[in-house]
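Record type: ASSEMBLY
Status: queued
Input:
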Amino acid sequence: MRVVPWLVVAIGASAVAVMSVGHAGPGSRTSITIWGAPATPVAPASLYGGQAYGAASTPTGAMIVDRREVDVAANGEVRIAGVPATLDPASVQLRSIGESFTVSEQRFVPGAATPDEILQRHVGEPITVTTPKGEVAGVLRSVDAQALVVEVGSGDQRRLQVMRRDGFVQDIRLAIAAGSDRPSLVWRVAAKKPGKHEVEVSYRAEGLAWTTDYLAILDEAQHALDFSAWATVKNATTATFENAELTLVDPAAAAAAAGKPVAAPARFTVPGAVRLGSGESVQVELFPPRTAAKPRTVVVFEAMPDQSASFQQFQAVDCNQLATSVGTARAEVALEVDVPTKAALPDGRVRLFKRTGSRLEVVTEDPLRSIAGVARIRLSPDGDVTGERHAVSCNYDEHAHVIKEKIEVKLENKGKQVVDVVAREFLWRWPMFKIESDESPRGTRAGAQTQEYRLSLPAGGKKSITYTVVYSW
Amino acid sequence: MKAWLLVLAACGGHAAHPVAPAAAHDITLYRDIALVRQRVEVTVPAGASSVTAHIAAAVTGDRVMVLDRGGLELRAVHVAGPAVPVVAPAAPAPAVEDTDAADASSEAPGDDSHLDDADPDAPPEPPPIAPPTDVTLDIAAPHAGAYSLVLAYTTNRLQWDADYTMTTTPARDAAVLRGAIAVRNTTGIAFAGAALHVIDADLGGWRTRTAEYLASALVGGTPSTTPAATVRDLGVASLIAGETRVEIAGISAPRAMHSVLVYDPIGTRLDNASAIPAREDKLGIEPAPPTRITESFEIQRDERAAAGLPAGPVRLLERRADGALGVLGESRLFDAATRVADVDTIAIGTAEGVVGHRERRELTIDEDRRHLTEEFVITLDNARDHEVGVLVREHLYRGQNWNVAFESTRRPQKEGAQQFSMRSSVPARSQQKILYVVVYTWPAN
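Status: finished
Output:
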């Protein structure tokens, strides 16, 4: 078994100005825009070239913009150490803020993590090796897993000494520049004068992602709800970012926006700068918590599952297809609370607790359902609200590329209490559509291809929803 | 600027009386997981600062919830590690005690929030004690002073089990129940003065039921009638690293007991806890059920005192006149199958001269009307010279939606979600037959 000798690293003076991401110095500013986990593709990649052909893909990872002061060495070298090991070198840009300079060369130097990698970095540099026969000082010429080659002596006394690392080499000392073994960006610039320059470095990196968790606490009387939204940012870049200004982009909204005339991806700017330590997860709030909000109890009714994911590449032109829903309806009791957002909240699980005396009772842990300004927490299936959906009429105009479909949804409350129903309708045939003015009751847009209708159903009562949707392409 | 974190010292491993001072923490023990509400006391200067607290080992950031900010403005919560791999390793990672293979795709490294479900009967192996997780809170205080925050998270590093003893006298007419819950704390931190609650159900099942009750209350629906677990408060205890036994208070009033013969040929092993009944033709028929009838003791259950008690093994002991204790029998108490039973039975041996036979007379499955009907005849043969009373326990193992349409003793007693009992007297050297018909139903798709 090979014994790796101790590697004693002495930090020596550096000939090159080195800055690290984590300690960029006063006046530095780091802005990070992080996309959440990519949404599931809406269509298989094999279909007509898939997502990559003629469609926008959802960005992943993070865009990091780092504004800082750097030292330009006399030889024109600028080095920033401690950048993410996961950065995309092709995305790196260095821009001078004040006095301009031109970049003639740019390199990304990966970090060295293992003893062998670190030794390899120092070939050609002074080294001191401790052996049973004493210390040997010289210049490291070569290294592999079995041996070190050190050039010793000077003048005509110069010679190469090969030392076995297994047993013979007891200790190695190297002089290294601070941060030189960490992932670094190195530029050669042509500046009018060396010294301090203010620059902006931007790059894309993987390894930064965020997810959302929601916390809801219902009071014992079931009249008030505390609701908070937490983003958990995970930093697996190997770099630490101090005082980072975070912007979180909702991937679901971004995916919905790709190629479709809907709202831009939802962005959440975290108030105040935070530290993103390497390997750390950081929780920040997406918006100020809502305390003692009044929750609404609703029954969410869906006559059929959303089929729109299957019809993103081509239109569902068969008018008989799903013209009548049979046995596909689903009703669920949910709690709704208003939230201060203009877009739907990001996907995430919500944990609902209920206060019972001094205890907190766990009620649900489910994905949050959300539309613009409203968070919806599912409780359990409802057996009292039933309904069916059918197409009253459907016309497909092959030449005009239009499908006009009139839909009726009949709802019945078999329960003994009046309930507020939110009926969700999916405009699943094609992403481009409009609802005509004969809609009754008036619905609201709740997603890229979702319309919601609110109505109050008395105990034992029946009501209908009708609307006409025109798909075009 | 770092502020002081007041470390709460553990002060012993035994349960305190219910009148103990207000609990510093609140821990609810579920079968698969524990929900911890941990109070963090901090003294901070006015303005922005950071404080670091220790919480249970292997808790990931997305599982930390801030329930009470204590008047502080909370800006960020930092949870250190576990290390997140930058690139997926080509080879399987070395065995790490915190990783769990049940759902690797959606689980952060080190996330041990669920248990391995490969073998539900095997007791879960407690993870070894590990260093606690550091949580750093970036806060801003309106003025300098002491504040109290409450964090919450789930952990599987507080595992527990319950066990009981029943002690009777040579007269064997009454028994005293004692029970304790052993909590194994491998979180890496000690919980001093924690209010403990136990719920004998998996967290997922408990949530479903709680949500169903809340929904029913909000919209006037009808909740399920299947007996559910309830909360049992254990008082305030300190959970130090390792095992702490917490005595269950308020259960030791003497209970009347008497001997009884029990015929329970099937047991709970076939129970299908589903609304959709199992349709297998030979279920419960092949292999042939045993004919053994057991000599048992029937001990009256105190419904109020037994509410929420977790299931566990019990030993029935007899304290003899010379003070020595002898074991009469072993069984289990408070399993979900006996959740609404009036009595507990503990078998002590095989009854001589009395045997039973279980025969199915009919099985009809009507898929259109969603009915499954099964008719059974239980035959009890008594070769003894005197009359015997036999308690026949039957399990409606096919599913949870059932109705006993006919029962010949006219005294059926529901004991749990899928279990009922019937009592019969069998005269000397004679035979007695019990007939019952069960109808299972299931909802439409």
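Annotation: The radius of gyration of chain A is 31 Å.
Annotation: DSSP finds two helices and 34 strands in chain A.
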